[in-house]
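Supplementary material to the annual report.
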Amino acid sequence: MFFKKSIMAGTGLFLSIFLIVHLSANCLLLLPESMARELYNAYSTILRESIVITIVAYLLYLSIILHVVYAAIVTYKNYKASPDRYMMNHTNETSSWSSQNMGLLGVFILLFIVIHMANFWARIKLGLGDGVGFDAAGNLDVYEVTYSLFQNIYFVVFYSIMMIPLGLHLNHALKSAFKTLGFYHKKGLRVLAKISLVYAVVIAVGFGIIPLIVYLK
Amino acid sequence: MKVTFKIWRQDSPKSKGVLKSYETDGISEDMSFLEALDHLNEILVAKNEKVVAFEYDCREGICGQCGLFINGRAHGPHEHTTACQLHMRSFKDGDTIVVEPWRAAAFPIIKDLVVDRSAFDRIIEKGGYISAKTGTAPEANAMLIPKEIADASMDVAACIGCGACVATCKNASAALFTSAKINHLNKLPQGKPEQHRRVLDMTAQMEAEGFGSCTLTGACEVECPAGISIASIAEMNNRYVRAKLLG
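Predicted assembly:
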């Protein structure tokens, strides 16, 4: 149980760091179109051609898989530990809804990741679907892939709405991961709870608002 | 006061239980919750019906025997209290009060509201004691312990083993109980000789008993009559890692 939860905490923290890098890069999309296209495409070319990033990418895939697999195992065991539920249950008065429903939130996030990877990763890395052109500098035009996707209002709404479960998941996840790994300094935990909240809001609002801005561009 | 109890009735561990309604009159708001159940049982005796089985001992909030899930909360609507310290003035005249036993795979129901909490005893048997000779009471002062450490140890030693943490946990995790028992002894010099083995053995038994894992929802620390913080669980995790590396 400790091993599984520690793996979930470790992979979760790694994915949380990744989200910061991912969001920082996405901020390039907020620049005026001419600059954004050039910089965004140049940046993504650097990522694709870097050996280090390739290794990190495989670590990311592995982290997602481990996190999901162990989540499924732990959830199943927890279900076995509490099979008969109460006729009347008001435990929502003593703990947050999101902390009680991390698994459900995780399912939404996984669904999002699958669709997100189908939209970008499958098209750019695997070459599935419509071909991707090149920009003036000769870089793969990833900006166009992003821009065209977010001309579809359904995708804009989907991408923005799905950041709500992500934010709720992250708010509980960040502080809990540290506790799972053994951080127990009481004052530190109070600070950590605030950091978790700020982190979750920044990530959710940041990722949630960019598709809207791109749509309105 | 007139109150309607809806109580979980179950004849034996194997039989199927149901919620049964009992209307009672003549309850005083000064009665403790357990006294109100006594009152109900006297009515049932007069009617020649089977009384409701429930556990208690001290009735002053320190023994951990009374454990009831009242209106959807462990030990009733208040935080940091036991069912015996809950009074009928916390309810209104005409209220319907739902009373259920603790529910967890590791706490099988024996009868009505009585559950078998011997899983906790078996966790204690794996290391909730010390092997060092500590002498008689006057010798307690022979070993100097800094006040902060003594206080921190006492904070978790306050656990009365009632099982509210397990009852309120969505995973029926015994992490708060086990962490309290481990940290209580591991903080003190008398508990140091077997500190690593204690963490590994007690947590292994906790898992073997079929308790769930901790999601750190924090529900347990709200219901805990001794007010033990979930930081205690984080500390146990820390000690577990250290025991794995050093033990």
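Helices of chain B lie at 33-46, 118-125, 147-157, 164-168, 175-186, 195-208, 219-223, 231-246.
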